[in-house]
Amino acid sequence: MQAIVGVEHVLTDEAAQPYLEDWRKRYRGQALAVVRPGSTQEVAAVIKLCYDAGVPIVTVGGNTGLCGGATPDSSGRSVVLSTGRLNRVREIDTDNDTITVEAGCVLQNLQEAARKADRLFALSLAAEGSCTIGGNLATNAGGTQVLRYGNAREQALGLEVVTPQGEIWDGLRGLRKDNTGYDLRDLFIGSEGTLGIITAATLKLYPVPVAQRTALLALRSLPDAVAMLSRARSGFGPSLTGFEVMAGHVLEAVVKLFPQQRIPFDGDSAKSAWFALLELSDSESAEHAQTRFEHVLGQAIEDGLVLDAAIAESVAQSKALWHLRESIPLAEAELGKSVKHDVSIPISRIAEFVDVTNAALQTKFPGVKNIVFGHLGDGNLHYNVSRSEDQTEQELLGLQDQIYQLVHDSVHAFNGSISAEHGVGQLKTRELPRYKSELELRLMRQIKVALDPKGLLNPGKVLYV
């Protein structure tokens, strides 16, 4: 490996340690070495070397995953392959509205490159300052703008992938239509590095919106939030970019822990049971956006659906509202470890799911606290459970398997998914057989064996064998 990538890019001992622990510090593994290739050809040569030697490979990007999908096991047999040096923007085609970038490109840098070309790359999430596009595609990341632009899968047109045998598939086609057989691109997206290693991608770009409007809404209940989402869809159509929902006590925790932030309401509205953050992106004019915003929100307030609305009047105010939402995971970290769930539920059943599951948790684990927030616009909730006042963190974590089962059983009963945007990793591999049919699992295993017959790519992730 040193001969392939250079001595300084093969890390062992202390230099390798930052790559061996996940972001949440939940998983820690060991590795023979960490290798940092600087080109697709070097990735292919490293993979072929490992394939011939029977050495497992775990790929890591920005290491911001929440399910341990980029952390090696404790055996020390694996090589960890970091895509950090694969960080170039290869091409921007404004006529075709595409950008081609390497897998290690940090999402925020990709967004800025698009912006310099007067285009928008629409994938946006809290970790965008450190997560990489390869990891985003490997986990089919979602984020705050899925409602309008879709998950990472919908934003990718083509991929470059290194196979488990060290061959390079060049699928970097900037085509919106290509009906020539099986869609290999979609096979690799969301596979979490278990079928091949994504080294580059051709992605969709969009015109930069002429105007954006952001508002925080105070609401009485989660059913009112669902009703407001329906009204916003009707009133704004495809201009509705995001619709986030947050339990009131969750935002209260944010402003208590971070006093420089505030909920922009007075009186009872500041203590509302639920809040929604919505954003409109308009292609006509600022005046048109403002008129539509005021009409739809004004009517919702007049009808009693919304208690109050704080409309951002500047970019700074808009960023402050989004900062409230994006500070929730930071507040959670300050409050201590919790049992986290990344689930999706049919939007029409979300309110019922939360009521039923909250009640079930209180019956079995009295006093635990629910931290509920997420992307209501696409049905994705972060439904987290933190300790009761008389519990220690360790006592809560001792119950986590029971909590997972209760919550995931409820998700399944509501026809939902136990992983909406964070992937499966090693956190949920044993859970899948409870909620996927034997046929689904058999088909997944057949695909894995067909592409990676030695089982060397990211072993122990996604599929429990």
Task: Set out the fold topology.
Elements: H1 2-5, E1 10-11, H2 13-16, E2 33-35, H3 40-53, E3 57-60, E4 79-82, E5 89-93, E6 98-102, H4 107-116, E7 119-120, H5 133-138, H6 146-149, H7 152-155, E8 156-162, E9 168-171, H8 184-188, E10 197-204, E11 206-207, E12 211-219, H9 222-236, E13 240-247, H10 248-257, E14 274-282, H11 286-302, E15 308-311, H12 315-326, H13 328-335, E16 342-344, H14 350-364, E17 369-375, E18 380-386, H15 393-398, H16 400-413, H17 432-435, H18 438-451
Parallel strand pairs: 2-4, 3-4
Antiparallel strand pairs: 1-2, 5-6, 6-10, 7-11, 8-9, 8-10, 12-14, 12-15, 13-14, 13-17, 16-18, 17-18
Helix pairs in contact: 9-11, 10-13, 14-16
Features:
alpha+beta; Uridine Diphospho-n-acetylenolpyruvylglucosamine Reductase, domain 2; Uridine Diphospho-n-acetylenolpyruvylglucosamine Reductase, domain 3; Alpha-Beta Plaits; five-stranded antiparallel beta sheet; 18 helices; 36% helix; flavoprotein; Hydroxyacid dehydrogenase
